[in-house]
Amino acid sequence: MTTPPTADTAAELADALTRAMKRIRRQTMHRLEPYGITPAQARALRTLAHAPGCGEDSGGAPMRLSELAERLRIVPRSATAVVDALEEAALVARTPDPADRRAVRVVLTDSGRAALERIGQVRHEVAQEYFEPVSRAEQEVLLRALRAAEAAYESAPPPGRPAAR
């Protein structure tokens, strides 16, 4: 016995995206495990890599721990735990903020940059494997649709939803 197709395409799409993200996340987590890196740590490293003064571009001051928490959309206490683990693994270093002695800035170490390369390779492999059955043209259409939905979501929040940061 089959269930009738749902008329709510948007809800079905949301469900399909949720399943896809869970599978991609699970596979990524499994592949990062030998390197001792969790998905949360990988996200933090990627965020730091794109911040002025933290990654390849050396302009600007390194990112404050509070700013990292904000960009990751997690509470500062959780960001502290992530950075503690990254620092213990020698992937980041904390430095005092010269402008505010109470604040701490976070920078990638050479080991952190090497870990970013491994993370990038794992992410690429997992994505390639997951989307392999989907044609390149369909992938591009899906990407454009998701970018359009995200842009609309960010620019004009519907009533009842707070504006995104």
The pLDDT mean sits at 88
Which class of secondary structure composition applies to the elements? mainly alpha
What global shape is seen? globular
How many DSSP-defined strands?
A: 3
What about the largest sheet?
3 strands, antiparallel
Give a description of the structure.
There is one protein chain. 18% of the residues are buried. The mean pLDDT is 88. The protein has a three-stranded antiparallel beta sheet with strand order 1-3-2. The protein contains six helices and three strands. Helices cover 59% and strands 10% of the residues. Strand 2 and strand 3 form a beta hairpin. It has 165 residues and is mostly helical.
Helix-strand blueprint:
Blueprint: H1 9-32, H2 39-49, E1 63-64, H3 65-72, H4 76-88, E2 92-97, E3 100-108, H5 110-131, H6 136-155
Antiparallel strand pairs: 1-3, 2-3
